[in-house]
Amino acid sequence: MPEKLVNQIPPDLRRLYIKAQEAAQRENPDYAITLFCQILEKEPGFYDCRRALRLEQAKKAAGQTTGFFKKAFSGVGSSPQIAKAKMALSRNPGEAMAIAEQVLNSDPNNTMAHRVIVDAALAQEFPKTAVMSLEVMVRNSPKDKALVVEFADLAAQTGGEASASAERALDELARASGFDQDLAQAQKNLSARKTMDEGGYSGLAGGEGSFRDILKNKEESASLEQSHRVQKSEDTAARLIKEYEDRLATEPDNMKMIRSLADL
Fold first, then answer.
1. Long-range contacts of 164-173 (CB under 8 A, 24+ apart)
2. Quick check: helix, strand or coil at residue 33?
3. Helices 93-106 & 111-123 angle (0-180, nearest 10)
4. 250-260 tens-digit pLDDT
5. pLDDT averaged over every residue in the chain
6. pLDDT band at 6, cuts 50/70/90?
7. Under the phi-then-psi rule, with left for phi > 0, alpha for psi from -120 to 50, and beta for the rest, what region is 5?
8. Which residues of 217-240 are buried (b: 16+ CB within 10 A; e: fewer)?
9. How big is the CA angle at 115 (ends 114 and 117), to the nearest 5 degrees?
10. What does the pLDDT read at residue 159?
11. Cα 111 from chain centroid (whole Å)
């Protein structure tokens, strides 16, 4: 099932989403997180809601003082939930995501929880949701080549802002490790996606836009190029005429000779 926009979810959940956004604006992340999670349990493909949840999770974590021991034992404390989420992956990916989000509510950078989100999202055909978690994972482990390539390949499929982030991650890893065939191929894939985005072809792939839009853009480009050529030709002709007139003005005898020959 594809990821959904706000106008594609039921009215009651839209109202709840607005309420959650208002809580976020009032700097009440706990309440906003609770509402966002309630929505995602029913609509796991609601991408904007999950992105808003990520922001509130990060906001809540930034406002807390996390000591060394709390960091050290946070992974241990979440292990039962992670195990439960992994067990739910095959039979109910949506449930697995909901359990993983409970871990992320208190530990937004938990790599194991984000891995569950990625696997569950891909099982439900939510690529943008998977990319969002992969970006966090790469930020935590920028030297993990397999992870960076996974992020870049999926970002190349989805496009958007993640492509730039994936490109930076690839470039940094390539500079540190030298030439690598896997990294080079991932860079090519991202470059191809960038070409599609700039040419308007990505809209077709996503069911947006039309060939008419692309042809219109190409026709406008061709028209501008042709106008430039015509203008350039006119400028060249005017310059040649001016040079010819100047030469005749300084050589009147030649002009008379040409006219005489024309009269014969």
1. 165/135, 165/138, 166/135, 166/138, 166/190, 169/138, 169/142, 172/142, 173/142, 173/143, 173/145, 173/148
2. helix
3. 150
4. 655 555 544 54
5. 81
6. very high
7. beta
8. eeeeeeeeeeeeeeeeeeeeeeee
9. 60
10. 84
11. 21
Helix (H) or strand (E) holding 179, with range, is: none
Q: Please report how many Cα atoms fall inside a 13 Å half-sphere around the Cα of residue 148, on the Cβ side.
A: 26
For residue 160, the model assigns a pLDDT of: 82
Instruction: From 134, 123, 126, 125, select the one nearest 54 (Cα to Cα).
Output: 134
Half-sphere exposure of 209 (CA within 13 A, CB side): 17
Surface-to-core class of residue 2, CB atoms within 10 Å of its CB (0-12 exposed, 13-18 middle, 19+ buried)? middle
Choose among 75, 85, 130: nearest CA to 107: 75
| Token output for 42 | 């029913």
Helical packing angle, 161-177 and 181-199, nearest 10°: 150
Phi, psi of 28 (to 5 degrees): -120, 70
Which token pair is 39?
């929505």
pTM for this prediction: 0.71
What DSSP string runs through 182-246? Answer: HHHHHHHHHHHHHHHHHHTHHHHHTT-S-HHHHHHHHHHHHHHHHHHHHHHHHHHHHHHHHHHHH
Instruction: Answer for the pair 50, 132: CB distance below 8 angstroms, yes or no.
Output: yes
